[in-house]
Amino acid sequence: xxxxxxxxxxxxxxxxxxxxxxxxxxxxPGTGATVARKFGAAYxxxxxxxxxxxxxxAVNDIKAAGGIAIGLxxxxxxxxxVKDAIAEAQKQLxxxxxxxxxxxxxxxxxxxxxxxxxxxxxxxxxxxNGRGAFIFSQAVLPLLLSSTDxxxxxxxxxxxxxxxxxxxxxxxxFSTGKFALRSLxxxxxxxxxxxxxxxxxxxxxxxxxxxxxxxWMKDAGPDSKIKPEAIADAYWFLHTQPRSxxxxxxxxVFHSLDPTL
Length: 261
Fold this sequence. Notes:
Layout: H1 3-14, E1 21-25, H2 31-40, E2 45-49, H3 56-64, E3 69-73, H4 79-92, E4 98-103, H5 119-145, E5 155-161, H6 172-192, E6 198-205, H7 228-239, E7 249-253
Parallel strand pairs: 1-2, 1-4, 2-3, 4-5, 5-6, 6-7
Helix pairs in contact: 2-3, 2-7, 4-5, 5-6
């Protein structure tokens, strides 16, 4: 039996509406949906996105596989929107404890010369990744703190990018936001790790293999793009780490036949 199918088989034997649940914010057709399906194999899951079309397919897939999933529209830059969405998730999923929360919000990617960048454009990177991560974390951490008696340590995972490690030319808005996200993750890991919460930042250092990137790097080799399924596996690995061995940051790196990439 395939490992994912085995996970579904085990989970559906004991999973109920009052079981521990997971929250995935920033669900789209790539990483977010795949992570949701992975966690949905073990937990009821709440999928958050601005646009319902971003989470509907993943919700249907999880349900079709025997899981429990709901989709909720939410704006992570709006405290009231996030608070309402999480309250609704708790209500619809039976009031169980929160086992994991994933912040997978990318934000608007603006590639533009700095001197041509408006203040509004610059702040879009911070709004999604800095402000959004702050609001989401303040909303989910109280839930995670009350979940330290579960099978796995309650987990808060942030999806980062190469831009969190080095700011590229023309990418000051996006890089500023991702740097803020990474810094927040590091601070929270050190504050809440001793309280039993596993906080981790994932540097997805490469192009993710999704439909919209199909034509990218076609000659760079079969391993030149990162599979979203592999990213989801890494997130599950982080979630299931014991309290004696928390990983605060992990790099997911592609391998290309082109040595210049």
